[in-house]
């Protein structure tokens, strides 16, 4: 039979780039028709809020496929409600807090955009037995007060995904089934403000400080060497701190290219000093020979 699904996302928080996870607090709404639950009560819709009564009913076996762990809210009471209409139409909602896995593409970090999603699949019933679809109107909604320190939420929209899986029947028997697979896609754009203040401006200023050595007398060797090496050490220390909270990926990020360029310019200031110092020593040497 058919089942309809919807989400209301209450909050998104604790976006951990190093672990590639984030926390989401959401309400999941499901609706289906079970003729066995048709009734002739005086009320058009019967509310069931007792857990024991709920556990005796058939409930869909949906699970969050890309969740590392989930917990259902039970403060101050179990957060669920279940409505049964006279014709057997059932509406079931619950509240859950999940840690969702999200594979990040950090090539353009910190000017990157990310696509995360919450994927829901039936655990045991294939599409032929349980066909899950989104509600026709506003299936995925969110709290407009949601705010993330690092990201801006561009949009959240319902999508469908490939639910083809190979599963075991016995030790030597396998089947391939097509399960209903729905996902709420979350499109995020990283805010540049934090990295501008913590990364780009400090490293840029360090490079500019290294250029001060160009205006120091060429004969003041200790001063020029000390300034160049100090800026180089400062830049290296700052760069290590910038990469501390990021996952160890096998490709270069945009921030790595910026940091490498800064190191290159500071290194060039050392090369310039070495070249000038060597050139002036030769001039002094040849000048002394000419005077003789």
From TrEMBL:
Signal peptide stretch: none
Keyword annotations from UniProtKB, A to Z: Cell membrane, Ion channel, Ion transport, Membrane, Signal, Transmembrane, Transmembrane helix, Transport
Compartments (UniProt record): Cell membrane; Membrane
Main location (coarse class): membrane
Family: Belongs to the ligand-gated ion channel (TC 1.A.9) family.
Membrane topology of the entry: Multi-pass membrane protein
Keyword Ion transport: yes
Keyword Isomerase appears in the UniProt entry: no
Chain segments annotated as transmembrane: 199-216, 223-242, 257-276
Source organism, top-level taxon: Eukaryota
GO molecular function terms noted in the UniProt entry: extracellular ligand-gated monoatomic ion channel activity; transmembrane signaling receptor activity
InterPro entries listed in its UniProt record: GABAA/Glycine_rcpt (IPR006028), Neur_chan_lig-bd (IPR006202), Neur_chan_lig-bd_sf (IPR036734), Neur_channel (IPR006201), Neuro-gated_channel_TM_sf (IPR036719), Neuro_actylchol_rec (IPR038050), Neurotrans-gated_channel_TM (IPR006029), Neurotransmitter_ion_chnl_CS (IPR018000)
Stored CDD domains: LGIC_ECD_anion, LGIC_TM_anion
Domain Neurotransmitter-gated ion-channel ligand-binding: 4-158
This protein's GO CC annotations: plasma membrane
All copies of domain Neurotransmitter-gated ion-channel transmembrane, residue ranges: 200-281
Name of protein: Transmembrane ion channel
């Amino acid at each position: 039979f058919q089942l309809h699904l919807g989400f209301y996302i209450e909050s998104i928080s604790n976006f951990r780039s190093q672990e590639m996870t984030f926390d989401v607090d959401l309400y999941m709404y499901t609706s289906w028709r079970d003729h066995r639950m048709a009734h002739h009560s005086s009320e058009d819709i019967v509310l069931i809020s007792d857990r024991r009564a709920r556990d005796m009913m058939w409930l869909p076996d949906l699970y969050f496929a890309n969740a590392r762990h989930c917990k259902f809210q039970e403060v101050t009471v179990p957060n669920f409600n279940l409505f049964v209409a006279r014709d057997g139409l059932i509406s079931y909602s619950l509240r859950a807090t999940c840690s969702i896995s999200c594979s990040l593409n950090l090539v353009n970090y910190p000017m990157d955009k990310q696509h995360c999603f919450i994927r829901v699949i039936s655990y045991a019933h294939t599409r032929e037995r349980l066909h899950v679809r989104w509600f026709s109107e506003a299936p995925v909604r969110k709290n407009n007060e949601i705010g993330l320190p690092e990201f801006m939420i561009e949009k959240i929209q319902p999508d469908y995904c490939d639910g083809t899986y190979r599963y075991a029947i016995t030790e030597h028997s396998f089947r391939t089934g097509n399960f209903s697979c729905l996902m709420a896609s979350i499109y995020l754009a990283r805010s540049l403000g934090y990295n501008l203040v913590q990364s780009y401006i400090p490293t840029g200023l360090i490079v500019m400080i290294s250029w001060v050595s160009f205006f120091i007398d060429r004969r003041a060797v200790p001063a020029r060497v000390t300034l160049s090496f100090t800026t180089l050490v400062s830049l290296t220390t700052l760069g290590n701190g910038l990469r501390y909270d990021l996952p160890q990926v096998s490709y270069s990020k945009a921030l790595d290219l910026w940091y490498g360029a800064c190191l290159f310019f500071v290194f060039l200031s050392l090369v310039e000093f070495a070249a000038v110092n060597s050139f002036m020593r030769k001039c002094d040497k040849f000048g002394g020979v000419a005077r003789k």
